[in-house]
Design brief:
This protein has 171 residues and is mainly beta. It is built from no helices and 12 strands. Strands 1, 2, 3 and 4 form a 4-stranded antiparallel sheet that branches. A 4-stranded antiparallel sheet has the order 5-6-7-8, with no helix packed on it.
Length: 171
Amino acid sequence: LLYEAGEGAIGYAGSTEGVTFERLGAGPLLEATLPEEGSRVGQPAAVWLDGRLFLYYAAPDVGAIFLATVTFDGAPVVEKVDADPLSPGHDPVLGPNVFAEEFDTGAVASPMVRITRFADRPVFDLWYAGRATGDEWTIGFAGSHDGLLFKRFSENPSLPAGGPVERDPAV
């Protein structure tokens, strides 16, 4: 179980029966340690692939979603992943959509991820909350073949602020 812990960190807990959980480790599993993350992290979402835990998390101070991988060989080993190692700094997997006048130009947060398969390749499906500056949060979708480079769905927002309306073809 991954959870938002304390003042902007992510903790983890384990259970043998799935009912009662005990915190694992002496401190948080993940904290904001990079300037690009701001001062806090939270809203964890995770999937397993090839023996690694892909841990997506929000950095609310900067309005972006980052990725860390976690392996377990006794104690967990956490590695923060730079989505674009060729550019300077540490890049998120999804940030505000500053190049388009879309619903998510101000911030993205609250990741939810799953892995599906297409032609024997993993496909990472990422749902997220997005908003323009001062607007209500709404739901968007992005997809990726590697879990790092996400492409936004062209029909975003997937669920407009306030929920579906009668004219929404998805309803």
